[in-house]
Prior knowledge:
This protein is mainly alpha-helical. The chain is 50% helix and 9% strand.
Amino acid sequence: MSTEMEPGSRTGRRIGLLHVAFDQALAAVLAEAGPAHPELRMAHLQIFRFDGIDGSTAAELAAHAGMTKQSMHELVVHLERFGYLTREPHPGDTRARLLRLTPAGRALEQDVHRAIAGLLESWRDRLGPERFDTLWEILREITGDRRPLPDLATISVPGRLRGPE
């Protein structure tokens, strides 16, 4: 299926190109991490794209992912049902629950981070180091994220997904 629109099409490619790249990235991560976790769906990657989800709340993750609390709650409930995380009372907020990764959840998190590192390495190989670094700098500028790309070898190490603050 082509992502190109016919010449003269009114809709053409606008933001669609960014969406296609994002979808391809998620699909690549799911293809790598998914076989060991058959209940994982692309939507669940919204949770695992952040470092340090252990001890977070669903509301915090929803805010980071730019999605509703209700949608994030559905993802959390699914992962809890399959034994990847548990929820426990928040000591400072009786309405909130802290998310805790189970051993299976830690394995899933590590598999997702390893798949992300592999994806970024494949982009670097495909683009070459200079063009990849340019792409990364442009993405940082667009998003306002000032952290550098972490060493790809450390991405799959728990607690090391983020670069220096």
